[in-house]
Amino acid sequence: MSAVSNIYPTAALQALDAAHHIHPFSDTKALNEEGSRIITHADGIWLTDSNGNRILDGMAGLWCVQVGHGREEIAEAVNKQMSELSYYNTFFKTSHPPAIALSEKLAELAPSHMNRVFYCSSGSEANDTVFRMVRHYWDQMGKPDKKVIIGRWNGYHGSTVAGTSLGGMKGMHEQGDLPVPGVRHIDQPYWYGEGEDMSPEEFGVHVARKLEEAIDQIGEDKVAAFIAEPIQGAGGVIIPPETYWPEMKRILDERDILFVADEVICGFGRLGKWFGSEFYGLEPDLMPIAKGLTSGYLPMGGVLVSDRVCEGLIDKGGDFNHGYTYSGHPVCAAAALANLEIMQREKLVERVADDIGPYLQNRWRALGDHPLVGEARMEGLMGALELVPKKGERKTKFADGGSAGTLCRDLSFQNGMVMRAVGDSMIISPPLVLSHDEADQLIAIASKTLDDTY
Ligand code: PLP
Question: Which PANTHER family match (predicted)?
Answer without folding.
Answer: AMINOTRANSFERASE (PTHR43094), AMINOTRANSFERASE CLASS-III (PTHR43094:SF1)
